[in-house]
Design a protein that fits this description.
Number of helices: 3
Number of strands: 0
Structural class: mainly alpha
Distance between the termini: 50 Å
Radius of gyration: 19 Å
Helix content: 55-70%
Shape: elongated
Number of domains: 2
Order of helices and strands: HHH
């Protein structure tokens, strides 16, 4: 599961020193906990959204963008809009 999945810190050079090996082992244990108890990193992020409004907003925006891109690919069209409010 460490190949390409999980947070970006998997590939930041952990494991090159004894402290790095401990950090890497801690990350492996964290990943095991997430997978065994929650499912995957996306599900962890979704669970955190219930407790942290900032993460919820980012999660919702990312999912809306993904849905828009997916439908744009299926339908073959996109539209860009700009909303302005005069204060």
């Amino acid at each position: 599961m460490l190949c390409g999945s999980g947070p970006s810190f998997w590939h930041d050079g952990f494991g090159r020193s004894s402290s790095g090996r401990r950090e890497r082992q801690a990350l492996v244990e964290l990943e095991h906990l997430v997978i065994s108890e929650i499912g995957d990193w996306k599900e962890l992020e979704a669970a955190l959204c219930g407790w942290l409004p900032d993460i919820r907003e980012q999660f919702e925006i990312a999912n809306r963008q993904a849905a828009f891109k997916g439908m744009s690919n299926i339908r073959g069209i996109t539209a860009e809009t700009e909303l302005r409010t005069d204060e």
